[in-house]
Amino acid sequence: MLRVAEHAELTDTGRQRRANEDAFFARAPLFVVADGMGGAQAGEVASATAIEVLAAGLGEGESVEQQLSTTVQQANAQIHALSVADDERAGMGTTITAAYVGENNVTLVHVGDSRCYRWRDGILERLTDDHSLVEEMVRQGQLTPEQALEHPQRSIITRALGPESVVEPDAQTINARDGDLLLLCSDGLSTMITDDQIAAVMARDKPLKATARGLIAAANEAGGRDNITVVLLRLEVLGGDAASDLEQTQVGLDVGQLPRAQATAGAAAAASVERRMPREPRAPAAKRRRRWKPGVGTLLALFAAALLLSGVYFASQAIYFVGADREGFVSVYQGVPYELPLGINLYREDYISGINLSQLPASERTTITEHSLRSRSDADDLVRQLELGRLGSSAP
Question: Is 366 exposed, middle or buried (0-12, 13-18, 19+ CB in 10 A)?
Fold first, then answer.
């Protein structure tokens, strides 16, 4: 089963704009980037409206492609109606690039010149085609990709949500592998730096938040002429060998665990500092206090307690349960739903869904709040069914 292992998102006004007309949505299984256009803050209205419509749920259709396309068309109709009703918003519009992570594949729906890329095995691949004047000229051989970056009409798009009463989005379903990294971005990134420059930042293999910051910094360093939005999501496949390897890697990098070499170096440094510190003069023998030395029985008891706690902790890492985070979003937790004194939790958050507890009927809320212990696959399946139920029961 395919799912989002982690994601990061960041937006920036850029260096030459006063307001940010970009918007994004990032709640598994749906991720969206929208880049608004139009004066008097109309672009902000258009992009925010598009995000609001998609976040509310998918439309009708036999496939996810049809459902996403229907929802995008609904957003277009709503934005167009707003632009017709208000002269100050006349002609407003927005791009849209959406990725829906299904159980076995990823569905993309796209209008405009925002983009979706896939980073796989050190290779960056663009998955969407820009609906823009210069892209048409590149496809017809009238411009090179390098010339398109500096073309004076590079900002003219040939398709968007809002300007017309009807729009035809591009839709496609792509296969995914364990470890695939998807990048959704507004043209504030792709018109400022080349695909090769984007790939160079991705190749640094840093945490996703740092990668997002690096991409935005590169666009700003190149001039930052437009708003810049970046959404990154890393995929994993559960149930296969690749997924098992990924899970082991994640557990091995838990916060608080240091490689042995680092731990050894730290101990050596501490010992070195201790040796350099002056020792206090020893007290006369008559005034020395006798230090308490634990007996063999006490040491054995402490050792047994430590083994017991270690066993409980490691056993808990093979157990999962479903609950809700502080904001009410249904989440999968690894461990058991208990807390020890001093605020020590026996669980950690493993996955956050896009479903809020308040949106569920009472019977389903009870299923979540009872915190029944489950296997990882059972917990993932429960949350997945909730997501599919909210975002379209016909989804695969």
Answer: exposed
Residue 193 near residue 226 (C-beta atoms within 8 A): no
Say which CATH number the domain at 127 has: 3.60.40.10
**Domain-embedded: residue 364:** yes
Amino acid sitting at position 221: E
pLDDT of residue 298: 66
Whether 257 shows a pLDDT value over 60: the answer reads: no
Q: Are residues 32 and 96 in contact, defined by beta-carbon separation less than 8 angstroms?
A: yes
Order of strands, sheet of 181-185, starting from the edge strand that comes earlier in the sequence: 2-12, 228-237, 181-185, 115-120, 123-126
> Both tokens of residue 5?
């292992």
- pTM score > 0.85 for this model? no
Residue corresponding to tokens 């791009």? 95
CATH number at residue 383: 3.30.70
By the 10 Å C-beta count (0-12 exposed, 13-18 middle, 19+ buried), 129 is classed as middle
pLDDT tens by residue, 277-321:
333 444 444 444 445 555 656 666 666 666 666 665 555 567 888
Identify whether 327 is part of a domain: yes
Q: Can the peptide bond before residue 29 be classed as cis, meaning omega within 30 degrees of 0?
A: yes
CA dihedral 375, 377, 380, 384 (to 10 degrees): -140
